[in-house]
């Protein structure tokens, strides 16, 4: 058996890319606010490395602020077409390097302008206010907006990963990989359904 659970995640993800109609890279991300109350939302995971996962966002958004205050996060993949799910808990950190630059520059111009125009998670008076900000940013940057300093990646380094596969009569297969810190080797346990 491979000593790195991310290898198995990549295998399942590649399988899902063939069967999921929309967004096989969609994950449900959980963060915690300053009162300890959880928030979840769907984001698109854009990079899987040998030791971590990366998605991109506005650092001033609700999720960005919550991660800044408490970097313990969780997320899950659910691929209904495969009857498989993966749950991951880990430590989040900003990915504000060339990785963020490269991804930002690969996006459509409208998405890059939108990153500048949107005050993500802030109150919006009306749609016209957003459209005015977009028009302003289009004039300001023309066709080559740089990556905003408030926008980049969030890298999640996993501490636990659970693989779930649907079983007949709800006798699902569950396999839990975990470690206490990022430098430890993984332990593996099978769990009752």
Write structural notes for this entry:
The protein is an alpha+beta fold and 193 residues long. The protein has one domain: Pnp Oxidase, Chain A (Roll), CATH 2.30.110.10. The protein is 29% helix and 35% strand. It is built from five helices and nine strands. Strands 1, 2, 3, 4, 5, 6, 7, 8 and 9 form a nine-stranded antiparallel beta sheet that branches. The chain starts with a helix and ends with a strand.
What keyword list fits this structure?
193 residues, alpha+beta, Pnp Oxidase, Chain A, 9-stranded antiparallel β-sheet, 35% strand, elongated
Give a concise summary:
The protein is of the alpha+beta class and about 190 residues long. Helices cover about 30% and strands about 35% of the residues.
**Range of helix content:** 25-40%
Q: CATH superfamily, please?
A: Electron Transport, Fmn-binding Protein, Chain A
Order of helices and strands: HEEEEHEEHHHEEE
Radius of gyration: 19 Å
Number of domains: 1
Write the layout of secondary structure elements.
Elements: H1 5-19, E1 26-32, E2 38-44, E3 47-48, E4 53-58, H2 62-69, E5 72-79, E6 84-95, H3 98-106, H4 109-117, H5 127-141, E7 151-165, E8 173-178, E9 187-191
Antiparallel strand pairs: 1-2, 1-5, 3-4, 4-7, 5-6, 6-7, 7-8, 8-9
Helix pairs in contact: 4-5
């Amino acid at each position: 058996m491979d000593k790195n659970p991310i290898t198995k995640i990549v295998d399942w993800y590649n399988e899902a890319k063939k069967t999921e109609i929309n967004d096989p890279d969609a994950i449900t991300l959980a963060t915690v606010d300053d009162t300890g109350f959880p928030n979840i939302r769907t984001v698109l995971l854009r990079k899987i490395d040998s030791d971590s996962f990366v998605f991109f966002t506005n650092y001033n958004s609700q999720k960005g602020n919550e991660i800044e205050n408490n970097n313990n996060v969780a997320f899950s993949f659910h691929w209904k077409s495969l009857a498989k799910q993966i749950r991951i808990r880990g430590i989040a950190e900003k990915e504000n390097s060339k990785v963020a630059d490269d991804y930002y520059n690969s996006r459509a111009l409208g998405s890059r302008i939108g990153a500048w125009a949107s005050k993500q998670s802030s109150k919006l008076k009306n749609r016209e206010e957003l459209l005015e900000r977009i028009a302003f940013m289009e004039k300001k940057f023309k066709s080559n907006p740089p990556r905003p300093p408030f926008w980049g990646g969030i890298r999640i380094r996993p501490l636990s990963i659970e693989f779930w596969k649907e079983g007949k009569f709800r006798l699902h297969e569950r396999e839990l990989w975990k470690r206490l810190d990022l430098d430890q080797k993984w332990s593996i346990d099978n769990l009752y359904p």
